[in-house]
Amino acid sequence: MSETKLIFQLSQPGRSAVSQAPKAVAEDKLSAIPAHLRRQQKPALPEVSEMQVVRHYTNLSSKNFAIDKQFYPLGSCTMKYNPRGANRAAMLPGFLNRHPLAPETHSQGFLSCMFELQNFLKEVTGMKGVSLAPMAGAQGEFAGVAMIRAYHEARGDEARTEILIPEAAHGTNPATAVMCGYKVREVPVGKDGDVDLEALKAACGPQTAGLMMTNPSTCGVFERQIEAIAKTVHEAGGLLYYDGANLNAILGKVRPGDMGFDVIHMNLHKTFATPHGGGGPGAGPVGVSERLLPYLPTPMAGQRDDDSYYWVDTDTLPTSIGHLSAFMGNAGVLLRAYYYARSLGRDGMIRVGEFSTLAANYLLKRLEAIGCTAAYPDRRASHEFILTFAKEAKELGVTAMDIAKRLLDYNQHAPTTYFPLLVPECFLIEPTETESKEALDEFVDAMAAIMEEARTEPDMVKEAPFTQPVRRLDDVKAARELDLTWSE
Amino acid sequence: MSEIPAELRYASSHEWAKNEDGTVTVGITAHAQDAMGDLVYVELPEVGQVVAAGDEAGVVESVKAASDIYAPVSGEIVEINEALEDEPELVNNAPYEGGWLFKIAMSEETDLDNLLTADQYQAQIESE
Ligand SMILES: Cc1ncc(COP(=O)(O)O)c(C=O)c1O
């Protein structure tokens, strides 16, 4: 495939695309904006014809590896099928044209969907209250830990300065704790993927504000001592935070509320099948136990005695940690999740949990049979699992990254690589429930071929990919010399 | 197998320590930089900061991962390797020379005895 020019490089003075052109704005409307706040020069936007725009972006999109084109087993990301029906529902003109500042009486339909979604998520997680306000998993974490902080402060318990985090955790967990003004203390994870309970006991004390846990963990296994862990942290006076990124595995089966968690965030853009990736809009609702109800972020959808709906805001909930954005979450993403929840229903959700786990365990067993090494061979997988290529790296010089790149040549999206950091040369593989057995078998065939190539032609594998628009990208240069602004 | 100079001491968290008359130079081992991959950013402590052995004293970040650096001995930070701000790759290219991170005026000479010898460190990374 040929190298694509940037849209800026296609620009010629005077060209324009009719359907993309902004509507002329009457001068009297502009005059409301003070002169010194108006730009003097036109922005340097590319000048291109409509046809050029269409062709440019169609060509770019066809270069993408995407869930609509390929198997996408990116661990910890739950790249499942995004139902078209959910998209259609969220695009109904009544939803699309609703202004967030429109009066409540004009938003009753939207508010009722959000109110019901809050209730579904309460039921799914076993929590006492849910706010849909956070706009991503990481923002849900921020809201959650801010609530933990508000809870301790309201009780005058100022000595709690530390958040405990198992070493396998996603990077957003420690980042969140630090953003909320806490010190992070790592808790080691044992060889079987479970938290080292003795080390946790030793780390707990009057300085413990809480523990952030992912269960099933980022090691792809269900934490078996969860009740003992909950008891240990609660006895020390800390609260339990549940990172719900892996909710897919336990949907309809186990509820974080029943495991003793005080606060949870969910990634609806993962578990509830809304499109995600590339930093696109997300939804990270938070659920809480009884004692954190006063602190939930606003706005939330509330229902009056006469069945009408309203926005619950800081005027009615002054103890709230407040707003996380101008309005409530990403409305379109929440609507898609609402549709997804409604179309699955209770039984459908149970099947999601069962089939995502079945798909992962099937794939794990088949990959072990072709000579891949499981990081936790004695454990059953949750909805995802870890392979380690430490042996291949040592003996053949072929790393997890090389194998990941070679997978692209077999038209398979690479799994998550080098995460969790705990396991050397690892793949974190999450097939999801929406893949057919045939798709899983094709991935196994590709892996079998690559494992053979690693033995017979390791130098070739180290050069992969060969079939993509670009070869290996220079990640180091991109990180060191980040440059995102077009200039001549 | 990566280089493990016999004259240095090592922390199990992969820092090396070199004592010269009570001033201890600290870096990360060849094995550690190799596992991290190409570094893109190094965060160093402030000169004058007082650290206890085992305290966090910096962060190294690669395209794959970010990893805390722990002070192998207690004392005051007396010098940092400012060249790393623009050239973090020095740590990859010469982990035991130009890629050193910081120097500590050691307050407890006995801290050194708690560190691993080259042979012990070698045994640790083989068992990992
Ligand atoms: C375990 C875990 N926690 C938290 C997050 C953060 O979610 P988000 O990317 O929506 O901010 C992720 C995302 O990848 C994750 O995998």
From TrEMBL, chain A:
The modification N6-(pyridoxal phosphate)lysine is found at K270. Residues 355-456 form the Glycine dehydrogenase C-terminal domain. Residues 31-307 form the Glycine cleavage system P-protein N-terminal domain. It comes from the Bacteria. Transmembrane segments: none annotated. One of its GO terms (molecular function) is pyridoxal phosphate binding. Keywords: Oxidoreductase, Pyridoxal phosphate. It catalyses: N(6)-[(R)-lipoyl]-L-lysyl-[glycine-cleavage complex H protein] + glycine + H(+) = N(6)-[(R)-S(8)-aminomethyldihydrolipoyl]-L-lysyl-[glycine-cleavage complex H protein] + CO2. Pfam families: GcvP2_C, GDC-P. Its cofactor is pyridoxal 5'-phosphate. One of its GO terms (cellular component) is glycine cleavage complex. It is an enzyme of class 1 (oxidoreductase). GO terms for biological process: glycine decarboxylation via glycine cleavage system. The keyword rRNA processing does not apply. Its EC number is 1.4.4.2. PANTHER family: GLYCINE DEHYDROGENASE (DECARBOXYLATING), MITOCHONDRIAL, GLYCINE DEHYDROGENASE, DECARBOXYLATING. NCBIfam families: PRK04366.1. The glycine cleavage system catalyzes the degradation of glycine. The P protein binds the alpha-amino group of glycine through its pyridoxal phosphate cofactor; CO(2) is released and the remaining methylamine moiety is then transferred to the lipoamide cofactor of the H protein. Belongs to the GcvP family. C-terminal subunit subfamily. The glycine cleavage system is composed of four proteins: P, T, L and H. In this organism, the P 'protein' is a heterodimer of two subunits. This is Probable glycine dehydrogenase (decarboxylating) subunit 2.
UniProtKB/TrEMBL annotation, chain B:
Residues 23-105 form the Lipoyl-binding domain. InterPro entries: 2-oxoA_DH_lipoyl-BS, Biotin_lipoyl, GCV_H, GCV_H/Fam206, GCV_H_sub, Single_hybrid_motif. The modification N6-lipoyllysine is found at K64. GO terms for cellular component: cytosol; glycine cleavage complex. It holds the Pfam family GCV_H. Its cofactor is (R)-lipoate. PROSITE patterns: BIOTINYL_LIPOYL (PS50968), LIPOYL (PS00189). Keywords: Lipoyl. Binds 1 lipoyl cofactor covalently. GO terms for biological process: glycine decarboxylation via glycine cleavage system; protein lipoylation. It comes from the Bacteria. The glycine cleavage system is composed of four proteins: P, T, L and H. PANTHER family: GLYCINE CLEAVAGE SYSTEM H PROTEIN, GLYCINE CLEAVAGE SYSTEM H PROTEIN-RELATED. HAMAP family: GcvH (MF_00272). Belongs to the GcvH family. The glycine cleavage system catalyzes the degradation of glycine. The H protein shuttles the methylamine group of glycine from the P protein to the T protein. This is Glycine cleavage system H protein.
